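Morning. Coffee machine broken again, so started the prediction first thing and wrote up yesterday's gels while waiting. Chain of 266 residues, entered below exactly as on the submission form.
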Amino acid sequence: MIKKGFSIQLSCRRSFFPTALVLAISIWILTGCASRQHLPDEKNVSPEARKLIDRLVGQNATLTHFKGLGTYRLKRPAGLISGRMGWACIRPDQFRTDILDFSGRPFTTIASNGQWLYARIRGENQIHKKPGTGATLKRIIGTPVTVKDMVAFLSGQIPILTYQQAQVKSGGDQSPVLILKGKWNRLVEEVYFHKETLSPRRVVIYAGSGASAYQVDIGSRFNQGGHSFFKTLVFNDSEKNKLEMTLDKLWIVTDLPASLFELNNP
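Came back before lunch.
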């Protein structure tokens, strides 16, 4: 049976956390969708900003299909969970992840084919399904990152949200900060770079209200197959949600079956 809408129970050493998370993800079925365009209508872009944007857009531009293995550590106000996870992606918005609990047992699979978001939950004899276009992962990881943006981060790219102004300012250590603004001078996104290498080290995404929605701190990078990937990603928000992802292994592939990004009953 395929059931529209789903909730996900994450195994945890603290008994009350799964219940709170299930309630949060149940709310996510009705909310948490925020569609974003990734090709901006440029209006006011300084030469310095153009160089940095071109640098970001050009990173791994030819990469399309990849798979990875790593670990995660998710801290939310209700508790802490951790384990291992694997993922497969086709850019820009096809995504699958198989998540293990702290004991190494599989407990859920999430997949998106760009149109629908699916989940298979351990212990349930059904597939849950909801519209996936523009849906965020807020009710799962706490931060409102979209599937498309998550695929971008895992592919070693920085998502560039829609903007009308792009300027560069100097940070406290004189390193460049790319500032993207939308209508009415509203902050959209900030990208902080290392001074010497001009590699991105932090991304701050702003909500429609202009308040910070979340930030991503980027650790070291490593090269594989002519592409450069982020070794660690740490997502934070003002509600004290924190997700740490560490990449252990990665494979660049030429093809992934479409069926991988859809879930069906056995």
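Residues 6-17, 19-42 have pLDDT under 50 and may be disordered. Going to sketch it on the whiteboard this afternoon.
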